[in-house]
Hints:
The protein is mainly α. The strands form two sheets. A two-stranded antiparallel sheet has the order 1-2. It has a two-stranded antiparallel ribbon with strand order 3-4. The radius of gyration is 43 Å and the shape is rod-shaped. It contains three helices and four strands; from the N terminus they run ββααβαβ. 57% of the residues lie in helices and 9% in strands.
Amino acid sequence: MLAPLALDGARIAKILVKEGDRVKLGQIVAILDARDRLQTAVLQAQQQVRVAQAKLAQVQAGAKVGEINAQQASVERLEAQSQGDKTAQQEAIFRIEAQWSGDRIAQEARGQGGKLNYFFPPFPPLTALLPPLLPIVM
Length: 138
């Protein structure tokens, strides 16, 4: 049997042989006072191994079907909400562009002294909604 590697100030707690006794190879001749401390450290390490094994078993078992379905439903809900927000923002942009274009046409009409002019809309999205040439009537 080998002597402990880390004695860290350990002292002899108990001597198991007397002076002059014959000893055999591997026979324990003394017990150090660090024995209890070292045994506690071993027990703690064994407990840590059991905890790690339990965590490993949980990971290997994987997520439950219900948890996966709940997460999938949450993702789908957020995607739908995002699409709705995007649509609402696009509609607001079109409405503001149309209003701005209408205001600009009205301002230009007031500045032309009643002449009939043609206006080419500045925004490509509006060209899909309006005829290419709009007569401006004063």
